[in-house]
Structures are given as structure tokens and as C-alpha cells.
Amino acid sequence: MSSKDQNVNILKKHASLFHAFIFLLAVIVAAFAAIKVFPDPIWQAIYFSVMSSVAAALMVVTLLFLLRRFFFVNHLDFRETTIECKARNLVMGSDVCGIDAVYDKKGNYGGHRDWINLIDRAVERVDIMGRSLYGWSQSADTVDIIVNKIVNDNVKFRWLFMHNENKFLPTILEEEMFSSSTQLTEKLETIIKLLCVVQDHLPEEKKDSFQVRQFKNVPLYFSILRIDDSILVNHYFCSTNSENSPLLHLKGLSSTWTRMYLNEFETIWKKATGLEFESLGKKHE
Question: Do 141 and 276 have their domain in common?
């Protein structure tokens, strides 16, 4: 509600009170004018006394009503207006930023099956970025789902994660001593093996739809999962693991936050190194 609308509502309320006051005054005047109906001075005195008491009572009630209206109800109106404005600003802010949902921690979004189902619903594109992407290795269906989406649905995949020669890796390993039981180097080794299996299962003409790169020069402070126009963002903290970190669900590719996160992905992607599947395949044979 704009300030102009609020002023109009206030004027309407005041006009209603003014009309009610005028009506009450007219009733009182009419009642006192009716005193001429009684020719006898005694009855006139009695009628005047009764009407004076009624008029006084009505005036007191009216005064109390006005006091309540201006000092109590107006306060409630102000609170209602404030709450309404805050709610409207929150909704507008969510629309601008592209926020569809917020989860207090990633673990409350769902289990491994729920994340795999997100990929299974993809129509055109899946972009995944994280430090290790280790969580995707915890589901037995990961390889089959990815291969099926690429071969049968022509979905394109891009995987972007940390290189084992990343210059920030020693610092991150030191941080993870407090929040993870599996070191990042082990996670990287596990996810590389998984991606090699996916690559081996793809026919030659579909291998370009599965691209994998690793970054060496950024520590990365959040992970991204993009499924078409839907994006999930999970920030990293030194004090806890990603499962206990907040999760943002963004919708729409034109919103402010969506563009910012996607631009971060593209920037890191361009500077990252492609994973050499052939040499890695021979290494893991």
C-alpha cells in the first residue's frame, strides 16, 4: 500500500467519524426541540432532565470512542500497516533476488535420492560446482541416471570441482579437520573415479555432452546445482560441514542472485582445467 493510499484511508476514517458526530448532534438537538410537545412546565422539566442525562451519557460514550479510535486503534492500524509493508518488501525482495525457498540447512532438503531425482527431472542442462562434489558418489544410481539423461534425453552436463593441485587446498584441509571425517583429497579421488565410470559408459557421440573441469586458483565458498532454470546454492563454512549449512533455492535465470551465481560459475569454468579422462582411465585400471 502506497503512502497516498494510506492517506486516503485515514481521510475516509476521519470522515466517517465526523459524520457520526454530526448525526449524534442532530439527534440531541432534535430531542431538545421536542420539549415543546409538553405544554405542562412540570413535564417539560422532567423531559429536559431525562434528555440531559441521555445527552451527557452519549457525549461521554462518543468521547471514549474517539479517544480509543485515535490512541489505540490508530496504533493497531500502524502496526498492521508496518507488518503489511514488511511482508510486501519481503515478497518483492524474494522476486527480485529469485528466492523460491530457503532451508535452514542442506540436510533438511532431502537425502541422496532427492538430489538424484533433481537430475532425473532435468530437460536441457545440469551444471554442478563444488569443492569435491563427493555427495554424488554416495548414491548407487548416480552413474545410471546421468548416462540415461545424456543418451536418451540429450541433457548436457558440466561438472566443476577443485583440482588436487589447488593452491588453497592445504588451508582447506586444515579447516576440514574440525568439520569432516573424510579429507578433501580422498573425496576428490572418489569423485574422479565416479566421473570416469560415467565417461566410459557414454557412447562416443555423446561424450561431449559430459564435460568436467577442475579449478586451481580459487578456494570456492559455495556449491551450485543448476537444473535448467532452477538453482540450489549451498555455502561453505569453517565451523561446520555443508550438510549443516543454509541452502538457497533460486528460480528464474533473470533474477539478481541467479545471474550473480551463474556468472560466478561461468567465470570459474572458463579458467578451469579440463579433466583428462584417457590418462585417468589408464591410471585407475
Answer: yes
Which is higher by pLDDT, 268 or 179? Answer: 268
| DSSP code for 232 | E
Residue 231: beta bridge partners?
A: 226, 250
Shared domain for 125 and 77, answered yes or no, is: no
> What distance lies between CA 171 and its chain's CA centroid?
32
Answer with the one of 79, 97, 115 that is the final residue of a domain.
Answer: 97
Residues 14 and 69 placed together within one structural domain of the fold: yes
- Which band of pLDDT confidence, cut at 50, 70 and 90, is reported for residue 4? very low
The confidence score (pLDDT) of residue 190 equals 94
Alpha-carbon gap, residue 210 to 33, rounded angstroms: 95
Cell numbers that stand for 216 in this block: 586451481
**Same-domain check for residues 108 and 70:** no
105 shares a domain with 92: no
What pLDDT, on a 0 to 100 scale, did the predictor assign at position 11? 47
Give the Cα separation of 246 and 236 in Å (integer): 9
Rounded Cα distance between 13 and 17, Å, is: 6
| Burial class, 228, CB count within 10 angstroms (exposed 0-12 / middle 13-18 / buried 19+) | middle
Q: Supply the range of the domain harboring residue 42.
A: 3-97
Same domain membership, residue 249 and residue 120 = yes
Give the single-character DSSP code of 103. E
Q: Which pLDDT band holds residue 262 (cuts at 50, 70, 90)?
A: very high
